[in-house]
Write a structure and sequence with these properties.
two-stranded parallel sheet
């Protein structure tokens, strides 16, 4: 239990006031708390046994028990650097169905992010990413949610997505927990913080907190750099190449959306090989001329 308290940021001593043990145990074996020799610091007032006959056995972790049901418990963290746009909460097992977290500000302006217990994991070959907390750039479609692309006009104009982008769905089916959408520059472009009009740019947690978070995928590395409770942030990148501009008789290097923000915020960025992942359900930005 001591290791669990260190590993998990949702579990705390208050949850140990009552303990439910699953297995073929006799209820009377838990009637004498003194014989269990539990640490005094736990302040445990009751211990009960439960079997599969009592209902589905949940994964280990902290729960609220009410009305004969287990209710999942999440911890709310403040989004102090303004990196999230829309936080989620799971409403079905294995996080297959998500709902908007309403403990927040107005449209696409997050205030808090809910994280599940790291103890409720089921690591296996089927769920290799079980327990991993991830966030997704607000340009990937997730079923039932609107994308902003960093633009209030786009957010108001287009309907919620009918399906989830295959690249994101693959992560969910592998056990990852999507905590919400994170920031990007307007229309997947590159803008300085002073040019972010519709949605304020995130703060770069490095230095004095006022350095630029850099271009397009600014919300993802800023969140990774600032929050130890977040594991992976899914952003985007573009092809790094020289483009001929015959009209202006010059060449320029195409911007890199993911790597420069990672450098600016002091974290690692992994750019998959082109074609390795599906880009369906991802808004690709303005095409090269």
């Amino acid at each position: 239990m001591e290791r669990a308290l260190i590993k998990d940021d949702v579990l705390c001593l208050e949850f140990l006031s009552g303990i439910i043990v699953h297995g073929n145990y006799v209820m009377e074996s838990f009637s004498d708390l003194e014989s269990l020799q539990l640490p005094v610091s736990w302040n445990t007032s009751w211990v009960r046994g439960a079997t599969s006959a009592d209902g589905p056995i949940p994964l280990p972790g902290p729960y609220l028990v009410s009305g004969g049901r287990y209710w999942d418990v999440h911890r709310l963290y403040e989004d102090s650097i303004n990196s999230f746009t829309l936080p989620f909460r799971p409403i079905t097992p294995n996080n297959k169905k998500l709902s908007r977290l309403f403990i927040q500000g107005t449209n696409h302006t997050a205030r808090s992010v809910a994280v599940p217990s790291r103890l409720r994991t089921e690591k296996s070959s089927t769920f290799p990413l079980s327990g991993m907390r991830i966030t997704v750039k607000d340009m990937f479609q997730i079923e039932g949610f609107r994308n902003s692309l960093g633009s209030r006009a786009y957010l108001d104009l287009y309907p919620p997505a009918a399906s989830t982008a295959p690249a994101i769905q693959k992560l969910v089916e592998s056990g990852a927990v999507v905590l919400g959408f994170t920031q990007l520059c307007s229309m997947v472009g590159t803008t300085d913080p002073t040019q972010c009009i519709d949605f304020q740019a995130p703060f770069n947690p490095r230095g004095d907190g006022y350095q630029s978070p850099s271009g397009g995928s600014n919300g993802q590395p800023a969140a990774i750099a600032a929050y130890g409770w977040l594991d992976i942030a899914i952003g985007s990148d573009c092809e790094s190449r020289f483009c001929d501009m015959n009209k202006f008789n010059r060449k320029y290097l195409a911007t890199v959306s993911g790597r420069m923000p990672a450098q600016a915020n002091g974290c690692f960025s992994l750019r998959p090989t082109c074609g390795a992942l599906s880009t369906e359900g991802m808004w690709s930005g303005a095409p090269y001329i």
